[in-house]
């Protein structure tokens, strides 16, 4: 794992934006796996700016989002379809026909999950998968005890996750209980993974993911099995790590090492 520790949220977010922009410049037809959540909003703002000011083009990029709430139509303001349009897609030159999220309102969510896996396989897999991390260590909506080999399927959200996401919905009743999410196996199949974590609330989950045992109890720890996983952290999110001196020795200032 590449552990890059940056001074603050702005610097960590800019580091991730730089990696995404570099990937798209190197491969204009890249297949990107996208994430949602509060952490990604400043990242998408930076990518919008890089599109506008630096000519980063997404015209040939294909995207697959990690997840969507079961029961929500794409037009629902709390859906991740809406989030992605508002945060990114409406502001860049991406072809909407090449953007994908699971349909939360699919009549048969299990068939939708299988079709989503087939769609990803059909384009040859994901080149770069963006990830956030939940306070409980989830990636996508793979809550603790998710199978480390799982594919896209329905997951029941934990009370903790529903509480964290309540701010995006009118009240307790309307906060969705289920999500369609790529599995941990789906995520591990991406050719590279790029996780962004900022803020002290993520410190415990980050430490368990990087330095804890590989365990379904902390789904992000599965990234230890991935040959090309980069975790970009701000100092607050890195504050529970024990091997910080080593990470900073290998990647001073969160930059590249001599060999990678
Ligand atoms: P957050 O969500 O960015 O809103 O903290 C991250 C996640 O739950 O994966």
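^ structure tokens above, recovered residues below v
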């Amino acid at each position: 794992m590449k552990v890059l520790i940056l001074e603050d949220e702005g610097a960590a977010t800019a580091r991730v934006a730089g990696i995404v922009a570099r990937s798209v410049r190197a491969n204009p037809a890249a297949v990107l796996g996208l994430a949602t959540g509060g952490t990604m909003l400043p990242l998408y703002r930076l990518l919008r700016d890089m599109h506008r000011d630096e000519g980063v083009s997404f015209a040939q990029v294909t995207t697959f989002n990690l997840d969507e709430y079961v029961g929500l139509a794409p037009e629902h303001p709390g859906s991740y379809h809406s989030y992605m349009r508002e945060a990114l897609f409406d502001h860049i030159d991406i072809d909407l026909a090449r953007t994908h999220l699971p349909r939360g309102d699919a009549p048969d969510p299990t068939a939708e999950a299988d079709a989503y896996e087939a769609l990803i396989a059909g384009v040859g897999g994901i080149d770069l998968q963006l990830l956030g991390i939940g306070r409980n260590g989830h990636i996508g909506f793979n809550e603790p005890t998710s199978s480390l080999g799982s594919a896209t399927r329905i997951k029941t959200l934990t009370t903790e996750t529903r509480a964290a996401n309540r701010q995006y919905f009118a009240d307790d009743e309307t906060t969705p209980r289920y999500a369609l999410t790529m599995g941990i196996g789906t995520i591990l199949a991406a050719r590279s993974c790029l996780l962004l974590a900022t803020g002290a609330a993520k410190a415990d989950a980050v430490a368990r993911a990087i330095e804890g045992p590989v365990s379904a109890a902390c789904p992000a720890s599965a990234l230890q099995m991935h040959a090309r996983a980069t975790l970009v952290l701000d100092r607050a999110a890195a504050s529970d790590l024990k091997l910080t001196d080593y990470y900073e020795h290998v990647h001073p200032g969160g930059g590249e090492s001599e060999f990678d």
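Residues 9-26 form the longest helix (18 residues).
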